[in-house]
């Protein structure tokens, strides 16, 4: 979960999210909302993402500003749950 959070939040390509699905949603103003352990237990889900599923949440009144922050300053807006996982990863990682 911590590694997944870091991958979605912290791994970048030219400053933007490395994951193409994350990049799509963040460009459109979403919030990286929740990571669900074993959210997709289908064979494809297990193979593609170890069964993890991610929720992106759109707050309609904030989509324009979130999109501008991401596109302008490459800032990822994330929930407290995701940020806590990122923090735990950073504390225990040797990267």
From TrEMBL:
Cellular-component GO terms for this entry: mitochondrial matrix; peroxisomal matrix
GO BP, one annotated term: acetyl-CoA biosynthetic process
Residue ranges annotated for the Malonyl-CoA decarboxylase C-terminal domain, each copy included: 1-58
GO MF term list: malonyl-CoA decarboxylase activity
Origin superkingdom: Eukaryota
InterPro entries tied to this protein: Malonyl_CoA_deC, Malonyl_CoA_deC_C, Malonyl_CoA_deC_C_sf
This protein's name: DCMC protein
Organism: Toxostoma redivivum (California thrasher)
Gene name linked to the record: Mlycd
């Amino acid at each position: 979960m911590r590694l997944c959070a870091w991958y979605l939040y912290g791994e970048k390509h030219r400053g933007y999210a490395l994951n193409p699905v994350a990049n799509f949603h963040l460009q459109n103003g979403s919030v990286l909302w929740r990571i669900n352990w074993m959210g997709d237990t289908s064979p494809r889900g297990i193979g593609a993402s170890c069964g993890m599923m991610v929720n992106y949440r759109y707050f309609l009144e904030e989509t324009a500003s979130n999109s501008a922050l991401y596109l302008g300053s490459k800032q990822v807006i994330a929930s407290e749950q995701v940020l806590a996982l990122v923090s735990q990863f950073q504390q225990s990682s040797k990267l």
